[in-house]
Amino acid sequence: MSADEKILKDLQKAVLGYDSKAAVSAAKAAIAAKVDPLLAIEKGLMPAIEKVGDQFEKMEIYLPELMLAGDAMKSALALLLPLLPKGSKGAKATVVMGTVQGDVHEIGKNIVASMLMAGGFNVIDLGVDVKTITFVDEAERNSAKIIGASALMASTIGSQKDIIDYLVASGKRKKHAVLVGGGPTTKEWAKEIGADGCGMTAVEAVKLANQLSKGK
């Protein structure tokens, strides 16, 4: 096994082992060895987080493990992403995402954001309790192809519709795909409000983002 292959394996092991410190060490080793940061992400981090996502879907692991794996991956990405050249093929698209106004839940959003970053997306995380106009303004400012709106309460999912209505009213609907998610959301709801997709799980949300990044 070459030195570069060992570094890629170490990145994978760190994520699969839920070890943020090991992930940072592996990322630093990759940088010191001048491993292509895109290679480190695509061949080191991505296979590991995809495996973790599959394990979560099959209920082989649970939310705490998924979150720890996401933290490990984010720790490595914090060092590797800034090294990607602008316009790199690693940046599939920009995604602006947040939890809608009136809702302060963020665990699901954070997991999706982490997995999107691992998948090569440029993610602008707006946080929680985000106003409708902020989603649109930030999408415009960052030339985001996708807006991701999370709602974890039945009383707040209406704000997902507000984002789409605002885009339509302002003549910007065709510029941004809208992906919704969260506990009370359903595919039927997404269709009803005119969203471009509904991610029922973090893994599904990333798959949809990949499809949307290639064209609505």
Count the DSSP helices: 9
CATH superfamily of the largest domain: Cobalamin-binding domain
Number of strands: 5
What share of residues is helical? 55-70%
Describe the protein.
The chain is of the alpha/beta class. The chain folds into two domains: 3-83, Orthogonal Bundle (Methyltransferase, Methionine Synthase (B12-binding Domains), Chain A, domain 1); 94-213, 3-Layer(aba) Sandwich (Rossmann fold), CATH 3.40.50.280. It is built from nine helices and five strands; from the N terminus they run ααααβαβαβαβαβα. It has helices at 3-16, 20-32, 37-57, 63-80, 107-118, 132-141, 158-169, 187-193, 202-213, and strands spanning 94-99, 122-125, 146-150, 177-181, 197-199. The chain has a five-stranded parallel sheet, with helices on both faces. α1 runs parallel beside α3, α2 runs parallel beside α4 (63-80) and α5 crosses α9. It is globular. The model has no long low-confidence stretch (mean pLDDT 89).
